[in-house]
Amino acid sequence: MDPERQEQRPTEPAAGRAVCMKRVSQLGVSLALTVLVGYLIYRGVPDWGLAWRVMIQGRPHFLLAGLGFVFLHMVLRAVRWGVLLSPVKQGVSLKNLFSLTLIKYTVNVIPPRAGEVAASLLLASKERVSAASVIAASLLERILDMMAVSVIFGFYMAFFSHWYAPNSDRGREVMLAIRSYSLKGFVVLCLGLAVLGWLLQSNRWQERLPHRLRAILMPFLDGFRGLQQGGVLFQSVLLSAAIWLVITLQLWCFMHAYLDSFPLVGSLFLMAITMVGVTIPTPGGVGGFQFFMDLALVNFFARYLSDLDPQSQAAGISNGSYLVSMIPVILAGLYFLNREGLSFGRISRLAEQRTK
């Protein structure tokens, strides 16, 4: 027997156990956060019966309009992904980009939320381009998202926040925290982009790297080449702004499905604060989205809610909005996953193998 194989054999069970332990720990952390957020929501809702009645009584035409904006949002994300990949390959199939955008959201329902990596690997295989470049372009999408939200929310804070001042002590605490951290986060993002731009333009640091490391790193940096091309960068920024304005319109439609009136500029605040919620690593952002929407509605927009039980009403609105926006996307993503002949387990293993 080959002695090299003999040496490798004992390590295989250990590697399998390590992977299994990693998955269990990721699942445990995600479930623990879900339980924690769920508890925070549960204890703040006096009447879940009322919340349920509110949730199922949404106006269908506004819910359908909101759902239309959900899928427009997905189309815009697919188009932006293709624009960011244009320095790597021109004419990436919009059909592939759209289906894999939906797959991203579906895979993110399960821990460890590896949708970005999994969809990027699938697209790289379909389009015969470097997987590292596609993953980098997906990372650049997230950076552009944060920049766009920061700018739009900054616009809201500068011109409209005094219209909808917090109506409670908790709301005032939230507003102070937002003002403290939003500017710092925006500055960090700008500095990060400046450093990335310098790394892309300078070749000196690349020459000092070992050949093997450079061979791994350079395809990854190719995914950021859109930052160096004015046309690509302009289109990406424009599409990023359009994406988040469409999400704002989506939330505005959902609010009108449950409330007699709600301000469009108030939906800018909902858009920004619910984005914080979905970044919490719970399955599909469930719980975090509802918690932060409830927080905003009760503490900033109480004038549009019922005086009798605003907490329960807000819970019904947030749950209804989440379900209408996510379930159709997940079902469409499952359809495309099935069409690709993939399962959640295979996707997870693929993502783990390619990111080691």
List keywords for this structure.
356 residues; single chain; globular; mainly alpha; 0% strand
Question: Can you describe what's shown?
Answer:
By secondary structure, this protein is mostly helical. It has one domain. The two termini are 29 Å apart. Mean pLDDT is 81; it is low at 3-10. The protein has 15 helices and no strands. Helix 5 packs across helix 14.
Count of DSSP-assigned helices: 15
Portion in helices: over 70%
How far apart the termini lie comes to 29 Å
Radius of gyration: 22 Å
* Count of the domains: 1
Approximately how much beta-strand content do the residues carry? under 5%
Brief write-up:
This protein is 78% helix and 0% strand. The chain has 356 residues and is an all-alpha fold.
Topology:
Layout: H1 3-8, H2 11-43, H3 48-56, H4 60-85, H5 94-107, H6 115-127, H7 131-159, H8 169-201, H9 204-207, H10 211-222, H11 230-258, H12 264-278, H13 288-300, H14 310-339, H15 344-355
